[in-house]
Amino acid sequence: MEFLQPATWSEALAMKSAHPEALPIAGGTDVMVDINFDRARPATIIDLTRIADLTEWGMDSAGAHLRIGAGVTYARIIDELSDRLPGLAMASRTVGSPQIRNRGTVGGNLGSASPAGDAHPPLLASDALVELSSTTGSRRVPAREFYTGPKRNAMRKDELIAAFLVEPSRGPQQFSKVGTRNAMVIAVCSFAIALDEERRQVGTGIGSAAPTPVTAGDAESFIEGVLDEGGLWETPGDLAPSALARFGELVAAAARPIDDVRGSAAYRRHALEVLARRTLAWSWDEYRKKSAA
Ligand SMILES: Cc1cc2nc3c(=O)[nH]c(=O)nc-3n(C[C@H](O)[C@H](O)[C@H](O)COP(=O)(O)OP(=O)(O)OC[C@H]3O[C@@H](n4cnc5c(N)ncnc54)[C@H](O)[C@@H]3O)c2cc1C
Fold first, then answer.
1. CB 275 within 8 A of CB 190
2. Which of 13, 23, 29 to mutate to test the pocket of ligand 1 (most atoms within 8 A of CB)?
3. The dihedral sign for the CA sequence 11, 17, 18, 20
4. Strands 129-134 and 160-166
5. Which of 100, 153, 161 is the pocket-test mutation for ligand 1 (most atoms within 8 Å of CB)?
6. What does the pLDDT look like over 218-261, one tens digit per residue?
7. Of 270, 285, 279, which is closest to residue 236 (Cα–Cα)?
8. Against a cut of 0.85, is the pTM above it?
C-alpha cells in the first residue's frame, strides 16, 4: 500500500489529482474499520492529519457563515461551537465514545455519507454547504444536494472536502436519536430541527430512515404556515397538539425506511413521528421562554 503524507493543502490536492483512486484518511474511525474487516483494500492512502488548514474554523470571509475545516473533530465542535451550532453539538455528543469523538471528524462523516451518520441531520436542518476542492478550484454544494445515494456523495474523484459552512444558529435547535442503548450506538433513526427566528423558517433533517439523509419539506412548510398564520413568531403562544401531531406525521411520511437488523421500517416511522413532535415542542418552548424573558 502506498502511503502519501502531504504537509499542506495544496500538496494534498495535487496528490489527489495525481492519484484519483487514493483513499483519504482523517480520524480513520471509518477507514480503519473497513480495512480491518477487509471491506477496503486501498492501493494508495492520503493521510490528511498533518494539514493545519483542515483543523481551523472561523467566520467565512463573506461574513454570514462559519467555515469549519473538514478535520475539526466532534470533541472540538462540542467544546468550541456549542453556543453557535447547538444542533450539531448535540449530535456530536451522541457520536461513539470519547475516543471516537477525539479522532472522528465531520469531514469524515461527510466522506462516508452513511445514512446513519449523526452530523447529517443537523447540517441539513441548518442548510449547511459542503466545500469541495481540487487543483482546478473550489465549489460549495448545499448539504441538501450532497448526499446522492447510500454511502455516496457529490464529491468527484479528484476532489477533497475542505470544509463545511453553516450560519450560526438564529433560533433554538434540537437533535434526537433512537438507538438500542445510550452510548456507542448507530442510530436506528434520528431527527434534527432548526428554528430560524429571523427568516421565520423551520429546517429539518432525518437520519437512518432513507437511502440518504433527507429533509422533510412538507413538514417544514406545514409548520411554517401554522406559525405565520397564527402570528406565533410575534406573540408566541402554545402550539396546538393537532399541529405537533401533523408535523410528526409529515416527518414520518418523508422517510423511506427499510427493515434491517437495527429496526423495522414501521418502528422507524413511528419513532420519527415521536422524535419530530418532541423536538419541535422542545425548541418552541425554548423560543417562547426566550421571547418572554
Ligand atoms: C466504535 C465506533 C463508534 C462510532 N459511532 C458513531 C456514531 O455514533 N455516529 C456516527 O455518525 N458515526 C459513528 N462512527 C463512525 C465514524 O466515527 C464517523 O463516521 C466519523 O465522522 C468518521 O470521521 P473520521 O475522521 O474518522 O473519518 P475517516 O475514517 O478518516 O474517513 C471516513 C471517510 O471520509 C473520507 N474522508 C475523510 N476526510 C476527508 C476529506 N477531507 N476529504 C475527502 N474525503 C475525506 C475517507 O476517505 C473515508 O471515505 C463510529 C465509528 C466507530 C469505530
1. yes
2. 29
3. positive
4. antiparallel
5. 100
6. 999 999 999 999 999 999 999 999 999 999 999 999 999 999 99
7. 285
8. yes
- Given a cut of 90, whether residue 63 has pLDDT beyond it is no
pLDDT at 183: 83
- Give the residue among 264, 281, 277, 276 at the shortest CA–CA distance from 209: 264
Q: Check residue 132 and give its pLDDT.
A: 98
**For the chain, where are the E strands, in sequence order?**
2-4, 23-25, 44-47, 57-59, 66-69, 129-134, 137-142, 147-149, 152-153, 160-166, 173-178, 189-196, 201-207
Q: What are the angstrom distances between the C-alpha of 283 and each of 24, 70, 123, 176?
A: 37, 28, 17, 12
- For residue 31, report the distance from its CA to the centre of ligand 1, in Å: 7
